[in-house]
Amino acid sequence: MLAMTANKATQDKRREQLGNEIAALMGPLVRELRAALLTCAGDLGLAPNEAQAVLLLGLRGLVSTKDLARALAIDPANASTLITKLERRGLVRRDAATHDRRKRLISLTAQGRELRRRLAGCVGERRPSFRELTTDELVTFRDLLRRVASAR
Fold first, then answer.
1. Nearest to 44 by CA among 103, 97, 105, 120
2. Is the pTM value of this prediction over 0.70?
3. Which of 36, 46, 69, 99 has its CB 3.0 to 4.6 Å from that of 41, i.e. a possible disulfide?
4. What is the rounded average pLDDT for all residues in the chain?
5. Rounded distance, CA 33 to CA 11, Å?
6. Which residues of 59-87 are buried (b: 16+ CB within 10 A; e: fewer)?
7. In which element (H, E) is residue 93 found?
8. Residue 139, class by beta-carbon neighbours within 10 Å (0-12 exposed, 13-18 middle, 19+ buried)?
């Protein structure tokens, strides 16, 4: 029993050390990505939250206002205002969900998809380089990030 407790304590300490190291390594990457997003959003005439919404919609396709708010960590009322701004610019549209006509789903328009492509390209030119990773490693990295993000 004592050996199991010592082993658990060792494992816990190792996990804490790894978590701290990952956080330290991720910090500069996150800051670089954020700076790239802010620069590129400004260059394309988007507010940062508009740019994040466009990128998110490009990844997810149809998204409800509630889900967009949750993903952007903003209040649903603010998400609705954000969507209205993007809609007025012709970047997104709201359509009734087929399963529930009361629910609206947001998606990018053709103009929105083009802007998302330009935004992603701009950020890609400025982001931390992933050239050192193989395609399989990038898939694993992405999958692990998705798993961590979904655990929130």
1. 120
2. yes
3. 46
4. 90
5. 32
6. eeeebbbebbbebeebeeeebbebbebbe
7. strand 92-96
8. exposed
